[in-house]
Amino acid sequence: MKNIPWQERPKNCNDVMWRYSENPIIDRYAIPTSNSIFNSAVVPFEDGFAGVFRCDNRAVQMNIFAGFSKDAIHWNINHEPITMQTGNTQLVHSDYRYDPRVTFIEDRYWITWCNGYEGAPTIGLAYTFDFKEFYQCENAFLPFNRNGVLFPQKINGKYAMLSRPSDNGHTPFGDIYISYSPDMKYWGEHRCVMKVTPFADSAWQCTKIGAGAVPILTKEGWLLLYHGVIQTCNGFRYSMGGAILDKNQPDKVLYRSQPYLLAPAAPYELAGDVPNVVFPCAALHSEEEDKLAVYYGAADTVVSMAFGRLSEVVKFIKENSLS
Amino acid sequence: MKNIPWQERPKNCNDVMWRYSENPIIDRYAIPTSNSIFNSAVVPFEDGFAGVFRCDNRAVQMNIFAGFSKDAIHWNINHEPITMQTGNTQLVHSDYRYDPRVTFIEDRYWITWCNGYEGAPTIGLAYTFDFKEFYQCENAFLPFNRNGVLFPQKINGKYAMLSRPSDNGHTPFGDIYISYSPDMKYWGEHRCVMKVTPFADSAWQCTKIGAGAVPILTKEGWLLLYHGVIQTCNGFRYSMGGAILDKNQPDKVLYRSQPYLLAPAAPYELAGDVPNVVFPCAALHSEEEDKLAVYYGAADTVVSMAFGRLSEVVKFIKENSLS
Amino acid sequence: MKNIPWQERPKNCNDVMWRYSENPIIDRYAIPTSNSIFNSAVVPFEDGFAGVFRCDNRAVQMNIFAGFSKDAIHWNINHEPITMQTGNTQLVHSDYRYDPRVTFIEDRYWITWCNGYEGAPTIGLAYTFDFKEFYQCENAFLPFNRNGVLFPQKINGKYAMLSRPSDNGHTPFGDIYISYSPDMKYWGEHRCVMKVTPFADSAWQCTKIGAGAVPILTKEGWLLLYHGVIQTCNGFRYSMGGAILDKNQPDKVLYRSQPYLLAPAAPYELAGDVPNVVFPCAALHSEEEDKLAVYYGAADTVVSMAFGRLSEVVKFIKENSLS
Amino acid sequence: MKNIPWQERPKNCNDVMWRYSENPIIDRYAIPTSNSIFNSAVVPFEDGFAGVFRCDNRAVQMNIFAGFSKDAIHWNINHEPITMQTGNTQLVHSDYRYDPRVTFIEDRYWITWCNGYEGAPTIGLAYTFDFKEFYQCENAFLPFNRNGVLFPQKINGKYAMLSRPSDNGHTPFGDIYISYSPDMKYWGEHRCVMKVTPFADSAWQCTKIGAGAVPILTKEGWLLLYHGVIQTCNGFRYSMGGAILDKNQPDKVLYRSQPYLLAPAAPYELAGDVPNVVFPCAALHSEEEDKLAVYYGAADTVVSMAFGRLSEVVKFIKENSLS
Amino acid sequence: MKNIPWQERPKNCNDVMWRYSENPIIDRYAIPTSNSIFNSAVVPFEDGFAGVFRCDNRAVQMNIFAGFSKDAIHWNINHEPITMQTGNTQLVHSDYRYDPRVTFIEDRYWITWCNGYEGAPTIGLAYTFDFKEFYQCENAFLPFNRNGVLFPQKINGKYAMLSRPSDNGHTPFGDIYISYSPDMKYWGEHRCVMKVTPFADSAWQCTKIGAGAVPILTKEGWLLLYHGVIQTCNGFRYSMGGAILDKNQPDKVLYRSQPYLLAPAAPYELAGDVPNVVFPCAALHSEEEDKLAVYYGAADTVVSMAFGRLSEVVKFIKENSLS
Amino acid sequence: MKNIPWQERPKNCNDVMWRYSENPIIDRYAIPTSNSIFNSAVVPFEDGFAGVFRCDNRAVQMNIFAGFSKDAIHWNINHEPITMQTGNTQLVHSDYRYDPRVTFIEDRYWITWCNGYEGAPTIGLAYTFDFKEFYQCENAFLPFNRNGVLFPQKINGKYAMLSRPSDNGHTPFGDIYISYSPDMKYWGEHRCVMKVTPFADSAWQCTKIGAGAVPILTKEGWLLLYHGVIQTCNGFRYSMGGAILDKNQPDKVLYRSQPYLLAPAAPYELAGDVPNVVFPCAALHSEEEDKLAVYYGAADTVVSMAFGRLSEVVKFIKENSLS
Predict the structure, then answer these.
(1) Within a 10 A sphere around the Cβ of C290, how many other Cβ atoms?
(2) Interface residues of chain F, partner chain A, Cβ below 8 Å
(3) Is the model's pLDDT at B37 over the cut of 70?
(4) A182, A256, A297, E45: which has the highest count of C-beta atoms within 10 A?
(5) C260 and E236: CB-CB below 8 Å?
(6) Sign of CA dihedral A142, A148, A153, A155
(7) Looking at this predicted complex, what is its ipTM?
């Protein structure tokens, strides 16, 4: 991929990833009804980019909206939420929708999100060809689940999805699992991929973890950007880490960063509706240009970006891996 | 079915179901290693009966054991737990196993239970032809789940299972869901069947509910015996209720008992390892003889039985149904 | 009062109060629909006795029922709950009703109970002349409140009620307050009467306390029988204590028993729907015959009685009073 | 009323209410002993304005102070807290005092606040003619209660007060009730006015709500500005909404805003002693000039102001009302 | 030791330990003021036996009392609690005292108990020569601590004490530690001895554990009888297990029973002030006669006994040891 | 001491202590691996200053690092954590290390810190002569403990340490105790020094308190700077107070500040990894120059400084003392 949004590493910065100097790229009030816009996903689309955005309105109702951009930094987000048509199910139903991800597989774009079904969160699933017409499919799993992220290609002939089984509240636990499907409707072969770390080994990811961006296939395996959470005496703190999963058997973790890649420190990450949150949901990359651009929600309030060299990020994870 | 275990309603008893006068039928120490035997399932087998029993040992490790009986009241339970061979998976793994149910479908007996996988409870699945050789299959769902109960026949060409998504502790919430599978390996089409009731409507089932015995097909639909829980200031109290589900669309509840059918009152239900528990896991019935015999765990310590006239139980549920 | 129900102190018993040997006097299934009958109140009525009884049905819905007796021990309880007509309000409304008390003042019997209003517990208030027609009045207070108990005569020209402000759950705190009203409609002059004790002083009443029976006027002042609660590692334990309040200024506690008068020890108190509960709601007394007969709920399941010599109980409280 | 403090809507602002550009108007250290000054109330007084202010001192003891202003923006707050004389009671007692409101009725100014009585919060009540001499009355209710707000005139011949029954901690629940009194001493006829909303309908007010400013009589009915709370994974977030209550029967809600009117977004609202708090306690208005000026506590640290057109606010509530 | 209290194993009993048929040996009301007598310790003394007993009075104040017996089964317990003189400290102070143990070392009897110091539980320490005069020493540790148990002889020239660091409530965690002292005043060299087990390995001891009886020196090492706790959905359940510690380095666990030795099953263990408690505090043994007699509190209400063959108990622990 | 870092009180500032205008003095990323640097301790050393710093790395592992400075404001912190050699124990073991204090006694510098032992926090102890070689000693106490602070000289011939017994989580309770040792190995004579205050007396220190800087000997006694915590509805808030302890019997509190000396208000205190934290760990002082310079962690993220006149601080504590 070319035309990837990019800003070089600042002078005197030695970090493996760095923030965009114009952060946040999307303000909380960017559409007329919004209270906050964050935890959103983007992909290359036609000659530019498309995305699915979490916009909470001023009744603090959570919903997902389509948006378009020429440069992947300046976005036009629709003022009306996405409406769904029937995909592989008659069940087109959502009490609420949040934290979308978007994955292109074969011939279409798949959207996963946290879907309110009978008041309980689970993984919603839909596809689109054009970001205008969306086709909702069966929920992937039973409640309670969040952070469903599809791999961008079939693995051993099956679709593969990461997710985080949880409960119905502000869950203080959560590990990453993988599940497979022959048809995007029936799911099985559930395997545990990564668990939270012992406090003493890597405390930023000791309370819960969840998949972030769609995994990126590198020579080393799948690069998974994920969030990890620590519970301080003043609530949860969300940071971003990275892992390398085996190419053909992705429940096998080859490397996993002991240090975080990015953690709340900028003012727009430290203060907002939920202080101290860095929550990645998408990434653009160019292997050719060795670029990685990550989109993350900041403080559950705005969308921000961070950049890194793809090869450096992979190398950093390998060299700083939990044993 | 004939030869159903039976005892007539006591004089002066007007209740729709009544306890067996020789309860408990299985003592907590019935096998040499057991601390308690409860929450167990039985089925007709050859010219008698077979069953799968939850026996916690004196390390309070939970496991399941096969057993046999001529009269369905006096049981010989194996002294060694069930061992598994590979069914449709290489993953023959259980941190722990508890609360089994047994269902005969087509040509074999299917066992479901709460299966510890990576320390997290989910629904284990296995089959047997003879209660000697057991073949473990893929776990049906992601954690966290309990009380998986299969229907005794395919519905609309698919296997159907009830379950209760939950979390990793003594969950104070839980509704009954149904899921379908074409092949006992991949599961989807998850639907909510019944939720807990408002406190003011039927308090004994206001905290959590879970499927109990394998559903029984009657003229009115599927008779589901289930447990309901209320949280008192001294902990949980488990009682048994009944519902009638639509024959062809069993996520549709036709009737559901507002009063309980049986609630803790006998000494062996009020005191034991967990006081105040009536927990049904199996039922034998004869439509011809109009008999229903329910097996339930009492106080998480012993196995007991209760009887009723099948037609009266169905009628009672209809006439005392929650609107 | 004569004809008070009575049984002499057993030989070898040195306790200030003792249990009736035929306890429980009312079984949990005494009326066809009941799951449990407990926490109930009785008064002399015509040539015998009348009462208001808490009967939870088998949907575990809580309601109050009238009943009648010749000897105050054997009771006929109506099979239908009390229905209300309008008293001093149009608001005749109860989500649920439990833990009634009955007080005769001037020309009528007043009933107080815990009344569910908009899902929140507060003090319901009604009167009757004949235990057939009941007239519901304004709720005495805002939610959240329980254990409202009226004094049997006006104090300084005003009606007076004890109550225990609390919250909407299984409240782990609670003190006794008094409030006054000129007209049984508007309430004010709220004063704190008694608080829980420090753990080291009298642990059985260190978590919460609530008024029990209607206060009895003695030469020493008002004798208040109340319940106290300790939280053990297996839940709450409810016992009965006694206090003497100043005759003219009843927010002034003259004496208060450091030891309990009665605590769970009998089998029907140790096991039941809520183990370890002794909960007094009424008392009959004869100053002339020096008799006291207390009615208490046992294990939230049945009604039991305990007896004592009125003078001895008062003396015991004085001599064992918390400083 | 004329002379209302005012600042026009900023250009490019489409919001129904907007912040004062010089916020906060009162700094946390505005008097020598203060740690924070917030949640305070103001009224027109003589040729200027008077107010009652919550000032926590540097021992973080909560108390209320009188203050005066010519323009309602720049305030002189007394350095000593308000002292009380006896009003309709001898009980002049406060463990602590916080969150005052002020209402002019007939001939005097009434102050309500959260009053610590025997360690428990309830509604304190006092009146003054001159903001120099204050006369404390009976607490309006039993504990536990907060956010008592009087209507500025009698309704059907009785005084009327809104309040929020709660418990003794950081209550995670709370609805708005109304109570009436013939004499400001005895209170009754308690009715539920508004409850929290389902999460899916209007999440910002799904955990607890409480009356804010003294209701304003408009042609549509009583305009009630109130606070609503959502519990995020990092604690409570307080926002401001509006409702229209029926003029003659104010427990009847005619309209209620689904979106909030103002929610934490400015730096002084996002950071402070308690982050993410917008808490209205008073409003000035001029129907003639169509102006509304709201005083609110920000982050439990400072006093801020927001403005709106009265007619627009009412219209906004009607057009964005919860069904 | 001879004259050990004893009752042979019942016929048909295959358990390694069995209950005394006349249990409980001490009733809850055995002294005039007692509400309950349990968790108590006995030792051989002169030509009979002496003991220190936990008697909670009817204010549920916890205290310790001396008692004497000829046969170690029938006891005369003093009606007044133990009073203390100064030992190695001026601090003779106890808010409350409970769960005593008694150990004879060299020339005197040492008593340890849970001692309330500034409202916080820690380990109290005293000695006596005659069970009439008691000399209180420095508390062994800082709060919060419980279940301090001394070894009956010095180890490597130092006194040694087991204890369970904990917190100030109904602690849901707790491991056994050992500490050493040159002089019974200053303590150090703290080492972890045993931790709770993973749920899947031995659930009855997965929540907290604490030393029970004074360790018994056998050929295999120190036999430690201890309690283990599991948290069920209806509270804690306390059982008894056994471990063998290295003779010279007792923080080294040689064997530890995976199954329990005794768990609540008898009626007096299942019901009482705290249901489901077996809590050992003392043991008598005769290596010569191969007898072991254990004293344990049942249901926090009474004192009971269980017997076993010393050699069989040691063998059982070795053969059923956690790896 | 001379050369104390210093900045005069700002004009118009009347506070007893004031912040350094260049705060924070140490940035969160001051060493390459750090996520945050805070809660650190400094002492005069040779012709400048040395310190021990808490640096959490980007795996959020907590560790302690040595550092050096000429002016006590600009610091060079080592990039590698402190390594330990054996002091008075073979147990050189730390799961984690945080919140160090440094005290010079007689001939060496003693370091105390919160030390992870078997996963449980307790007080680690080490000494150094040169801040290059460190010698780890026995942990001072059993778990669970935090905030161990040594006095700078023996008291009555014994070493003396303040500490805060606690539990294994984000403890919502905690008082300050003192313990003595003849040899820095065995500890005893534990005494309670100060407890949390009642909410109504001084709310900022009503939840937990802990020693901060090494006590400073003044003419009035030991000046102890400590932290106090209040629990708001959005978590804990840490402020700094001061107390004067008796010179020879330091468990005797002579004076204790009712108001705080410094509380979170600056931006770097209000936002960071844990908002609203002021946590003192060290102080430099010159009695001659009447100067006091305090080092405190801000928001668990950076190190900041505050200044005051030593005599004024003592006077302030005396004049604003809790009775």
Answers:
(1) 13
(2) 28, 32-33, 35, 56-62, 95-96, 116, 119, 170, 234-236, 271-276, 300
(3) yes
(4) A297
(5) no
(6) negative
(7) 0.90
Query: What is the C-alpha separation between E268 and E265, in angstroms, rounded?
Result: 8
Closest CA to A142 of C83, B313, B147, C237: B147
D27, D60, D277: which to substitute to probe chain F, counting the most F Cβ within 10 Å?
A: D60
Q: 3-class SS at E28? A: coil
Of D144, D180, D187, the CB nearest to C188: D187
* Chain E residues inside the 8 Å CB shell of F162: none
The enclosing H or E element of C311 equals helix C310-319
**Token pair belonging to B175:** 């509704």
Cβ count within 10 A of residue C6: 16
The string of DSSP codes covering D24-40 is -SB-TTSSTTEEEEEEE
Q: How many CB atoms lie within 10 A of CB C128?
A: 22
Does D58 sit within 8 Å of F263, measured CB to CB?
A: yes
* pLDDT tens string C124-176: 999 999 999 999 999 999 999 999 999 999 999 999 999 999 888 778 889 99
Q: Is the pLDDT of residue A271 over 90?
A: yes
Output the furthest CA–CA distance in chain E (Å, rounded).
56
Distances (CA, A) of D256 to C308, D195, D318, F60: 58, 11, 7, 46
Chains B and E touch (3+ CB pairs under 8 A): yes
- In Å, how far are C3, C14, C286, F130, F192 from C289, measured between CA atoms? 10, 20, 5, 88, 55
Query: Going by beta carbons, is chain C in contact with chain F, meaning 3 or more pairs sit under 8 Å apart?
Result: no
CA C210 from chain centre, in angstroms, equals 9
CA–chain centroid gap for A248, Å, is 22
CB pairs under 8 A between A and B: 81
B and C touch with 3+ CB pairs <8 Å, answer yes
* Nearest residue, CB atoms, C200 vs list E96, E235, E276: E96
Kindly list the residues from chain D whose CB atom is less than 8 angstroms away from the CB atom of residue A62.
203
Is the Cβ–Cβ distance between C43 and C104 less than 8 Å?
A: yes
Rounded to whole angstroms, how far apart are CA atoms D64 and E72?
A: 67
CA-based radius of gyration for chain E? 18
Strand partners of residue E37: E55
E111-151 tens-digit pLDDT: 999 999 988 899 999 999 999 999 999 999 999 999 999 99
Q: List the one residue out of A99, A82, A186 whose CA is nearest residue A140.
A: A186
F1 has a pLDDT exceeding 80: no
Question: Can you spell out the DSSP letters for A291-323?
Answer: EEEEEEEETTTEEEEEEE-HHHHHHHHHHTB--
Q: Which of C46, C56, C47, C51 is nearest to C66 (CA)?
A: C51
Structure tokens at F262: 């410094």
Q: Which residues contact A74 (CB under 8 A, 6 or more apart)?
A: A25
pTM, entire model: 0.92
Check: CB of residue F242 under 8 Å from CB of residue F228.
no
Q: C170: distance to nearest CA of chain B, Å?
A: 6
pLDDT in tens, E252-299: 999 999 999 999 999 999 999 999 999 999 999 999 999 999 999 999
For residue C166, give how far its alpha carbon lies from the nearest alpha carbon of chain B (Å). 14
Chain F residues whose CB is inside 8 A of the D234 CB are 234-235
Q: Quick check: B186 and A182 CB within 8 A?
A: yes
Q: Residues of B with CB below 8 A from A141's CB? A: 141-142, 190
* C-alpha angle E302-E305-E307 in degrees, rounded to nearest 5: 165
Q: CB of D64 within 8 A of CB of D100?
A: yes
Q: Which residues of A touch D233 (CB under 8 A)?
A: 170, 235-236, 274
E258: distance to nearest CA of chain B, Å? 5
Put simply, the answer to whether E116 touches C258 (Cβ < 8 Å) is: no
